[in-house]
Amino acid sequence: MSKTAKLEIDNNIYEFPIIEGTEKELGIDIKTLRGVTGGVTTIDPGYKNTGSCESAITFLDGEKGILRYRGYSIEELAEKADFLEVAYLLIFGELPTAIQLAKFDKDIKEESHVDEDMKKILDGFPKSAHPMGVLSSLTSALIAFNPGSVDVDSEEEMYNAIVKILAKFPVLAAWTMRKRKSLPLDYGDNSLGYVENLHKMMFARPNKAYEANKLINDALDKLLILHADHEQNCSTSTVRIVGSSHAGLFASLSAGISALWGPLHGGANQAVIEMLEAIKADGGDTAKYIEKAKDKNDPFRLMGFGHRVYKNFDPRAKIIKQSAEEILGDMGVEDPVLDIAKGLAKVALEDEYFVKRKLYPNVDFYSGIIYRALGIPTEMFTVMFALGRLPGWIAQWREMRLRKEPIGRPRQIYTGENYRDFVKVENR
Ligand code: SDX
């Protein structure tokens, strides 16, 4: 493969280096393009063909359905690791030793209190407020209570900010859910593991002893691992570009939460269940909805289907589908929408429209079925996605800052009015 790419404009030939990643991905390095061509730029709406950075955190191969965190396969991590280990791996690049993991866990626990005045901000929201909007606001509000976590340049300052947000974010997420349910805010219990404590904070009842359920906590742990990172997706790119202005970690994460909220991105897990419920209410007529999804005049999309990168099965969807069947079986839960989901997927995967466009179930297609079986309200599904993605956002933000990457500022091609003189209002 050639090490350079040639571009011809007006009989001038320009050469640009081709960089090769450790998994043989190739990218044309156009850092000098505008300079050498006198101002020519590129245009690529949605960045479908454009790499924003080099990164050593997550590798995915959309054609082969491969996903690896720091070289470890998602299948092995989901099976053999726990979420805190995976968080450490993503952020610091290596699986932690027992001593490193114990210190990480201890440092996080020491930061798990949230300032009481944060409750006044939470109380300002109506119960009907969507949890993602509340969580984005609370994450940003945390800055005011942790000013030392804003301007972090050294690795030590970053570490302190990282353990703070890993500790406080689950508390805020649980508080957001409990507020909607008019439950007292629970501070959790530092004697519990990270995911077990999250479940306790979400579900403990004030007048009843909390009983941990290993099946539920293992399912949650696996779901959080499966959502932990996914290279330069919309919300991660948001975290990186906001962080590139040297806005603090919490501000960058708050922006990432807002980006994840969108139904085309993390918000799809809520939209999938709402779609499946609508199909169920409409008599379970999957064929009708498949036709609606194919109809260009119909705004309906098959939520949980399709992916910008995966043009084969999303490996996470495969694992989640199998887990959904196992967990519902173990819990003795019968959920008719699981059958509707499987029926929908079967028909779509045999339909020319979906096959031609390489549209497969993605991470959001089955996840809501498990969340629901675990008693998590539908409007909290995307918050669960954010809880999983938190270490990935942190890892990507830290990588960008440690590499001292430039502020993100894309160019454009202007297509508006050419110069025109101002006209006074009496003459218009
Ligand atoms: C996530 O990027 C990531 O890594 C994201 C994520 C992560 O972990 O961070 O994996 C998480 O966001 C998963 C995606 C969740 N979103 C959904 O499930 C929403 C439904 N899916 C689509 O809206 C869509 O597939 C996207 C947004 C996921 C991807 O959109 P693209 O890559 O911009 O593709 P496109 O919209 O240009 O679609 C290409 C074609 C179009 O048809 P044509 O114009 O070629 O005729 O496929 C069609 C689309 O109309 N199409 C669909 C469809 N998805 C794409 N048609 C019906 N139903 C769908 N779901």
Mind explaining what this structure looks like?
By secondary structure, the protein is mainly alpha-helical. Helix content is 51%, strand content 7%. Strands 1-2-3 form a three-stranded antiparallel β-sheet. It has a three-stranded antiparallel β-sheet with strand order 4-5-6. Strand 1 and strand 2 (12-20) form a beta hairpin. The mean pLDDT is 95. The structure holds s-citryldethia Coenzyme A. S-citryldethia Coenzyme A (SDX) binds at residues 46, 230, 233, 264-266, 268, 293, 301-309, 357, 359, 362-364.
Summarize the structure.
The chain is mainly α.
Helix and strand arrangement:
Blueprint (H helix, E strand, L loop, with lengths): L3 E6 L2 E9 L5 E3 L4 H5 L20 E4 L4 E4 L2 E2 H7 L2 H10 L5 H12 L8 H6 L7 H15 L9 H26 L13 H10 L10 H13 L7 H10 L5 H13 L6 H14 L4 H9 L20 H17 L4 H14 L2 H5 L6 H11 L7 H22 L26
Antiparallel strand pairs: 1-2, 2-3, 4-5, 5-6
Helix pairs in contact: 2-9, 3-18, 4-7, 6-7, 6-11, 7-8, 7-18, 9-14, 9-17, 9-18, 10-11, 10-18, 11-18, 12-15, 12-17, 14-17
Bound molecules: s-citryldethia Coenzyme A.
